[in-house]
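A quick aside before the break. I want you to see a complete sequence-to-structure record at least once, exactly as it would be stored in a machine-readable document. Don't worry about memorizing anything.
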Amino acid sequence: MAEAVVLAIVAVATAWSGYQASRWEGLSARAYALDERYTVLAQERETLAGQERLYDIITFNDWIAAKASGHDALAAFYQRRFRPEYLVAFKIWSRLDPLHDRKAPPGPVFMHEYRSANALEAHRLAALSSDYFSAGVRSREQGDDYVRVTVFLATVLFLTALSQRLDLPAARAVIVTVAGIFLLVSIFWILTLPRT
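That is the input. The structure line, written in tokens, reads:
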């Protein structure tokens, strides 16, 4: 009778454990997919930020060359081509009288006020990607815990089947007791592990 009860509990517990393992694996796969998606988006924004920074530096160098050579109209032309984000830092930098004050930063990109919306967005997306990666790892670990429970339950099945082959009641009782302990440990894990 004890063997039949053990087998019935093991059947239900194994099904539940396998179900949870597959659910956690699905959550892990989803989180890893989102990690990859946000990694690509972050890299795209980082590339755009780098291109904008390069554009800012090139137009600034052209402006400084025009200004230094006395071509004010050409310098004004380049200044009109500054990106709005860059222009904020440029105006603050210009107030420092950088052409005469050696303590002034070498250019607006070295100013604290220099901002890039794409760089900030890249940072945000990279952090989001990292969060999804961590969630994927945690979900995979939860699935692995349920797989471990399934292995314990398979051991219970093996021990129960083995006990049915023995003729000695004492040996049979010992094996069923060990199987029962494995079963109790497995049930404890099933009840305490997080569920999806």
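Two observations worth writing down. The chain has a mean pLDDT of 94. The chain has one domain: 2-192. We'll return to this after the break.
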